[in-house]
Amino acid sequence: MNISFRRALPEDAENLVQVQIAAFHHDSILYPGVSLGGPPGYDSVESTFRQIREMNYYTIRFDERIIGGVGLRDVAIGHIHLDLLYIDPEFHNLGIGTLAIEFLERTHPTTKWTLDTPDYAVRNQHFYQKFGYVRVGEKPVEDFVLLAYEKNLE
To answer: Which domains does the chain have, with CATH numbers?
Structure first.
């Protein structure tokens, strides 16, 4: 499988939005009772344009097809927050998420990584814990709880 990571460009926004919609809506299939939705702006081309400008945003590609995205931002010196990691459900369980984490840690060396994931997303929790992320807190948001994770490399 030919997977690559490339810096997202404004012309990628529409494709990224379509993949985000598919990926985040898939949660309603994986987790009964979870309504359709995603992080703020997940279904907005304008929001994705802004994220591409303001974050370190990458496309995940299978050959030339965009099948996912990764957005991260520098919080402070030595601290990066992983805002987004999503993959088209058609490509789940193929090790692409693992490749994404390895790519990020290799290309963005830092001493502290943080991220948030919904409490209902048990698969996400297991995935991040597999890479050494530790749950450090939680924050109620609308009809679910966001779990805060951290990985220290010091």
So the answer is: 3-152 (3.40.630.30)
Alpha-carbon distance 116 to 147, whole Å? 5
pLDDT in tens, 22-52: 999 998 888 888 888 888 889 999 999 999 9
Among the listed residues 90, 92, 53, the one whose alpha carbon sits nearest the alpha carbon of residue 73: 53
- Average pLDDT value for residue range 123-134: 96
Question: In sequence order, what are the residues at sequence separation of 6 or more whose Cβ sits closer than 8 angstroms to the Cβ of residue 4?
Answer: 60, 61
Mapped to the 3 state alphabet, what secondary structure does the chain carry?
CCEEEEECCHHHHHHHHHHHHHHHHCHHHHCCCCCCCCCCCCCCHHHHHHHHHHCEEEEEEECCEEEEEEEEEEEECCEEEEEEEEECHHHCCCCHHHHHHHHHHHHCCCCEEEEEEECCCHHHHHHHHHCCCEEEEEEEECCEEEEEEEEECC
